[in-house]
Amino acid sequence: MTERSRLLAGRRGLSRPEKEAVLARVLAEVAPRPVWRRRLAIGALALSAAAAGALILLPVTPRDELTARGGDLPPGFEVTCVPAPCAVGSKLVFDVTSTGGATYFAAFARGADRMIWYFPSTPEGLSRALPHGGGVLNTGITLGSEHAPGTYTISGVFSPAPLDRAAIRMLVEADGAAVTRQVTIR
Fold it and tell me: What is the CB neighbour count within 10 angstroms for residue 7?
C-alpha cells in the first residue's frame, strides 16, 4: 500500500509487504561487500603507489643548466678574473661547477710557449682537495709577471686521489683527461 491509500483506509502503520521492502533496502545498504571488491581496491591502491614511487625514483627529465651540482654530471669549472678584465695584478678565481665524483683538482695554464702551474703550486705539491659538491675555491691565483699578455688555455684535472705534477702530466698526455677554459690576459 502506498501512503495515500493507507491514510484512506484508516491505517497509520506500515503493512507487512511495506515493512519487508524497507528491511530489504536497509540490508542491501549495510550488507558487507563481496571480498573480491575489497581485494581489487587494495591491489589497485598498491599498484598506483608503486607507479608513483617509480616516477619519483626514476628521473625522466633532461638535464639543463638548473641541475643540482655533483651527481653524475661530468666535471667542470669556470675561471674569472677579479677585477675584470684579466691583467697582471688581477686574481684568477676558480669555480668548480661539478666534481663528477672526483675529490681532487689540479690546474695549470699553457700559452706563449710556457706552462704555469696553479694547483699544485710547488713541484713537490699535490693536487688540492675539492669542497663537497664543488663551488668557488678558497684560493685565488694572483696574476704576476709570468703571465705575459695573450691567450692562455687553463686545464683542470679532476681525480679521486691527490696527484703530483708528473702524474698529472702523464694523465693529460695519455688520454687528455683535462677540462679546458680560455683566458685572455691584457
Answer: 11
Rounded CA-CA distance 50/56 in Å is: 10
Domains of the chain plus CATH, in order, are: 3-57 (no CATH), 76-185 (2.60.40)
Interatomic CA distance for residues 183 and 16, integer angstroms: 100
pTM of structure: 0.60
Pick from 179, 116, 99: nearest CA to 150: 116
Using a 10 angstrom Cβ sphere, with 0-12 exposed, 13-18 middle and 19 or more buried, the burial of residue 108 is buried
C-alpha cell at 31: 550488507
Closest among 87, 83, 147, 88 to 118, alpha carbons compared: 147
pLDDT of 123-154, one tens digit each?
Answer: 898 999 988 878 888 888 899 888 888 899 99
